[in-house]
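Quick one - first record:
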Amino acid sequence: MLLLCFVCAGCGSIPLQDDHYFCDPWVPNNCPLGFECRFSTTQHGFRCMKEAGFCGDGRCDLSETRTNCPVDCFCGNGTCDAAEYSSWCAQDCFCGNGSCDVGETISSCFEDCPVSECGDGICSEDEDSSSCPSDCGLCGNGACDIGETPSTCPQDCGVCGDHTCDPDESPVTCPQDCGVCGDHTCNPDESPVTCPEDCGLCGNEVCDPTEWIGSCPRDCYCGNGTCDTGEASTDCPQDCGGPYCGDGNIDQGEQCDGTNFGGATCESLGYNPGSLTCLADCKIETAGCGGPLHPCTPNPCSSPPQDYCVDEIATTFPETGDCTEIGGLPECSYVPLQQDCASGGLVCQNGSCLPPVDPCSPNPCDSPPPDGCSGQIALHYSATGDCTDIGGAASCDYPFVSEDCASQDLICTYGTCTQAGVLISEYVEGTNYNRYVEIYNATSSPVDLDGYKLRLYTNGSTTPTFEIAVPQHILSPGAVYVIGNPSGMLYAEDLSSTGLTFNGNDAIELTDSSLRQLDLIGTIGSTIYFGQDQTLIRKPGIFIGSTAFAPTDWDPLPADTHQLGSHSP
């Protein structure tokens, strides 16, 4: 052991042992002159030690932390380090570990915190300024000694929250004044030596968290490779990641950057060969280039007029013209070349002589007219027509096949032979006695209506409730025959019958002389209203009656409006 001694007023010479006496790392000047309070791995606690510590000596010294010396300072190393306490690292900091840790006292853990002796230079818990002034001093000596409190000695002890880490305060008892090393704030009890990660050290060539360009320009300056406090990409892009002149990239507002000219050369800028220079402000300097180029070097004449045709004479121009300098500017001329296309059996198109085009190859005739009717003859056109070249243009003629519909007792409709017959073309159910039924001859031959009947099925009856027999009458093709109630006021009917009194839900059937059903409006046996207070007109394109009523075959009109007297199929 190294034996030391020191002299104090009124106590004489006292020998001091290294790595022996307990000390509180949070109380300034807690050890005699020449000693410092450090954690001892041999004594497993804080002791006054003479030797200067270093990272890797197995001791977590006051200047060491888990950040700058993790090999000595870590939770689980079996020692209660300076920044550890029982609630944070219980596996190292506990009563009985042989170390008087932060927060432990003689009364709370006597086995780790033994009684000291008056005159050992340490003001222990069981000592105060009255019992041992040689160790603890007196109130007013600027030190908050053991036995003194903010109430008994405010001039030495102060109050927690006064922004001063007093001797009786620690990060555990008063974190708002003392703080913790590593909290990015240089607290009153911290210094660049005891806590460099918070307090930094101006001149260490590192801009520490508490330094900035105003407080330490030696460490904090634009260009040191670190985006320091107060710097941004707008005012220091080389440190903070923004584009800047000198980064080798041609950014907005720059013509060049270093050796990067973006492909520009003296020639591309209108000068004779030479060397370009990129200035410090990233602008191009052309002083190293030859003089300005001749206006015709390189030849700018590369936009000739459009080739054209006049009759069969083709006029073409060369892709590159002749350049002449006039007043320092280039003047371009293009010598045309003419060719008579007709002399070689060719035709002129867009200034070129080309073989004549056959308008019929390939055959463009693929749009025949729609099938139609010529009287009762149906005309069916071929899908592909015959093409003829007339003056260089295609003329299409579509052959057709004719079909005599009348010979089949059919009629021609839109180029198709369709079965036709006599049918009901109009139904009027108006106000009062305005009741009418119109019969239409859709065939191509006259029809004798003698023996034809209109049969009414009223109120859902399944058998006829009234019949109207049509007398002999020759109905021409396309003509109509109107049967009406004599009290009706809308039209002068061809045949009157007081029995014509339907009301919109009564089916009406048309039969021929053999009682064969030709047409039907409404549904026999049903009372559903299909035509009340309205007029129904047969839609065009229907040429034969139906045995089942389909509302979609009829166009409705308001009550008392009609088209009686004619029908357009």
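second record:
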Amino acid sequence: MPKRSSIAHCDPNQLSYYDGYKAPLHFVELHDYRSLDTRDGRSSLSLAKRPKGKWKENPRDLSVAKSLLEDGTNVGLNPPEDILVVDFDRGPCVNEKADPEAVFRDFCDDYGIDLRQFLVVETGGGGFHIYMKVDPKLSWRGKLPGYHKAFDLKSSSGYVVCPGSIHNSGNSYRVRNGSALLSNTGRIPDKLMEHALKSSRIESTFDETTPSGRGETSPESLAAMLSHLKPKDFRDYHGDEEGGTSWLKLMMACHHATAGIGLHEFIEWSTKDPQYADHGPSIEEKWHSLKSDEGGATRLVTVRYLYAMLAKFDAQEAMPRTPTSKVFEVSDLDLNEVPDEPKHTKAITNRLRRWTAGQFAARTDNIQPILDGFLYRGGVNMFVGDPGLGKTATALDLALSIANGDDQWKGRRLFTNGSVVFVAAEGELALINRLKAWSKANGQDLPENLHVVTPDVGSVDLKDEKCRVELVSYIREIKPVLTIIDTLASSAIGLKENDVDSVSPLLDFARVVSRTADGAVVFIHHPPKGDGSVRGSSALVGNTDGVIGLKRVKDSKHGEFELIAHKVRYGAMEPPIRLRLRSLDLGPDPQHSDRRVSGPLVEGFDVEAPDLEDLKIISDCLSKHSENGEIGRADLCKHLAEEFGRSAKTWERRIDALLPQGEFVRAAGLTFLKREKKNNAWRIEKVDFRDRWTIDPEELNPPEKQHAQ
């Protein structure tokens, strides 16, 4: 360690290594290196690294930080979301009589760290800060599990002392290698990232041994519940008094409720107490020290403690109405606490709620349609079809229309627009020409709201915790109304499709994705050979909200296929949508000039021109002579013969060909239903589903479309 300087001066020039960063940086005003904590007679505790006041509420910019250093005040950096700082401290090594240099050297060797690639700051205490680029929106541990205590991880929830500041020993924090800047520091090695990522609530959906309720609460819901509690009521750390409040137990309950991803929300709530306003870093360290499993003889504190505290402070209404966890055991209830006259219609456990029929019917939190009769927000769905029929092309075409803000898709009304995530677990390169074909056919750029997720290394494997954490981080950022995973088999390597215990956790994860974004999730899946049903465990149908299938149209002239709703939980199934694939020429291959490139395009299938013309004639005649849109076939054919020529028998044969018995026919905005034979006459009805899709956009003013926030 360098010898202590007789005169210590802060050096604002050291902050030049932060210049040129792509976004504004937030700095923290600290005390000077000679400041001591004199509260309660304490005179030996240095404040050199402690903030002045509530640093999150009063961040400083780079120019102010330089001025503070010029005035002799230390400053810290609140790392941006795409920077993680590895903090090596010599102290624990000295305490354990270990060689600090050897410990640090082993760390770099273990994780493949070449210090020349990173911005490295040597601390005044002889340690190091290594700045590393990371993916934003990911959550990081405070410590490396199972590694030496000398290493901490500093993320955007805390701060690190900046170069140019002075350690309480009088030594300076200085940049060690002058070639690296914050803007071009190296990316975190994969091995270190794997160990540094903190546990996510997603892992709980794949762990059959986790206690009921773990991971059922989103960070946003946790923040809403904590807003009903006052931090000062939880100043008692252990809460030894029976029935008393305990900050530690509440932290453990919040950790359990969110399976570890509610850290920022809990820190923000805890530091609202002025007495603990600067305790963010220590809270983060305690949070990361909590284990995900029960372990040991001590009974795990669960989300139930959080619910109990909300009930204690008369805030039952803040509890979620429909938690996803199982109802806990009767032994967990204290029957003496159940009042004779409950204030609310919910039970004291908040697991059940009683409604009158009128109250329930008046609820406004119903599932909203995306494509009515087929796809709804908040659901998990299967999209099945034979290989080569066009599943991926059809799903991608629908995704593009939703992301593009279109009012309709293949003649059916779209109720919701917004961002879409398409997870390409297989055939990712094939998407390139599909996207180009859509762009060329529509004469416009691809919508920015469509996000394609592909494997960066290896493959997409949703059975892998790291992969699940990364995907949910994207979902939390994008908030898509629709997430498409292509395909089920390719996204979960080694999945036993016929094993319900293997399939159910994957569907549970899909529901986490759905809840996180308040959107729909669609798995593209293959049917059994020669069958249109869903391949694999019955859970793939029973535990999903919708099953959509593609089916070839028999004896079709143009290779048409139909999109059919086999199962719809949240609405009435609608008539099939008839589609066809065609190949669109994209021009010469950029790499081989003698070869041309094409891309598949999904089109809504209209009848041929002569058929369309006759349908329009039938529609006009029906509108003119029918009562309430209905007319008998014989009467209709008589009017057609009188007004448009041809014999009535010819029109009868024409109607039979165009409007099969008991089927919907849809073309060019016209919808018909030829009914069953009754009273020796066929009934022809022009159907107007104004509450489901538009027949004539110029005649209809639909309700305002929903857009994802």
